[in-house]
Design goal:
Helices cover 29% and strands 20% of the residues. It has 172 residues and is α/β, with parallel strands linked by helices. The protein folds into two domains: 80 residues, no CATH class; 64 residues, no CATH class.
Amino acid sequence: MEEIRNKVAESGLITLSLEDFYPAGKRLNLDIAPWLFEGLILREKDFRTHLKNHDWSQYQDSYVALNCSADAIIPQWAYMLLASYLEPYAQKVVFGSMEQLEAMLMEEALENLDFESYRDKRIIVKGCGAINMPPHAYVKMAMRLKPIVKSLLFGEACSTVPIYKQKSVAKK
């Protein structure tokens, strides 16, 4: 009887899942449109009243996307004021959509990661998982890995898409 071999394990391929670097924590969207007068105008006095009466504790230890879904001109100071109310509670506050929040969180997580252990290795970046990763995370991963790895693939060990392969130096 022939011995069963795990060719994937023998290949030296290292599989990286972006989920392993995903910052844990609740994500919340704070849309200020309901706080605008007639859905269009930010009146400072009314706005400050909304801020004062809002339950900020719901943002405790959360990542918050701050935005306005109404087609209104919001003065810059309003977002600064909102950030000052959120600061004691939220882990991070960004101006933008939930998608932009996810992209920024992954950007920071990957920027702070030490990639040196992957030098001259064959890497597969896993493509599927329980968490829908922002495309920006895959872009960032490619930018960080390409200069140091021997090869970079996307997918699963049984079905990969080649992204990059280091050129061999011809010996004389």
